[in-house]
Design goal:
Helices cover 33% and strands 31% of the residues. It is α+β, with helices and mostly antiparallel strands and 110 residues long. The protein has one domain. It is globular and about 30 Å long.
Length: 110
């Protein structure tokens, strides 16, 4: 996922994460927003991926700096479980939504 690697270690702007109008512009919704975030915390976002309501990604932060991103599908029986996308599906997501993801990460890390 070379496309998004540059966002690792960038600071997350909480005000921008809360801006639902801008997130909607990128086709992304915030599903879990810790406010205030702990020193080590996770933000969960939903993303439209071929019409699936269960597509999501988690951004893990440490001292509000991005340390990890995980893209996957929420388990239909237990929405607290995120099943990682297989490599080929991840590549398809980047191909189809890469520009919006870059713009989203540019925005939330300003």
């Amino acid at each position: 996922m070379e496309l998004l690697r540059k966002y690792i270690d960038r600071e997350l702007n909480l005000k921008h994460v809360k801006d639902t109008d801008m997130l909607t512009k990128y086709g992304i919704t915030c599903r879990h927003l810790p406010d205030p975030p702990e020193v080590f915390d996770e933000f969960e976002f939903g993303i439209d991926f071929y019409g699936s309501q269960d597509a999501a990604f988690v951004v893990t932060v440490e001292k509000m700096r991005i340390v990890r991103m995980l893209f996957g599908f929420l388990d239909s029986d237990n929405p607290d479980i995120l099943r990682p996308l297989p490599e080929e599906r991840l590549e398809l997501l980047v191909k189809e939504r890469g520009r919006e993801l870059q713009e989203f990460f540019d925005f939330i890390s300003q």
